[in-house]
Amino acid sequence: MMPLAAVVAQEAGGLSDAGTWIANVFFYAIAAVAIVAALRMVSTQNVVHAALYLLVVLTAVAAVYIILGAEFTAVTQALVYLGAIMVLLLFGVMLTRARIGTETNLDHEQKWMGALVAVATGAVMGYSLWEGFGDVKLPAEVPQNTQQVSDEIFSTYIVPFEALSVLLLAALIGAVVVARRD
Q1: What is the DSSP letter of 45?
Q2: Which fold has domain 4-102+110-143?
C-alpha cells in the first residue's frame, strides 16, 4: 500500500517510479519517528521529556505535510503547534512549579484499561474510515498554493479566525492568573 503523498503525486504525473520510491521511504521513516516519539511521550515519567517528545511528533506531522505538498499547512503546523507546545512547557511546568525530573507516582493501576479503550477507539475509527472512504479515489489535482489558502482564510473565514485568536488570548491570560494565584 502506497502512502497518500506518493499516490497523489504519481496520479498528477509529478513523480517517476524512483521519486515514488523516495517519497515512500521518507514517509515511512517520518511515520516511524512519529510513532516511536508518541509512544515515548505517553510512557515517560518525566514531564519535560513528554513535552519534548510531543515536539518531535508535531514536527513529524509538519514533515508529512511537506511531503504532501501542503507547505502552508506545514508552516502553520510548525508556527502554531510547535510554538504552542513551548508555551505549554513554559506555563505548565515552570509557572506551576511542577517538579522537573522523574515522577514515580504517575502510573495508575488501570493503564491497561486505557490501552484497551485506545485500541478499541482506533479500531472503530479505522473501520468507519474504511467503510466511508474505502473505494473513493483521491483527486489528482495540483495542491493549492499558499496565496489561495491565505486568501480563503482571510476573506471567507476571517471571523472564526479572529474569534479563535481571542479565545487563545483569553486562555493564555487565564493560565497566567491561575499560575500566579499563590
Answers
A1: S
A2: Four Helix Bundle (Hemerythrin (Met), subunit A) (1.20.120)
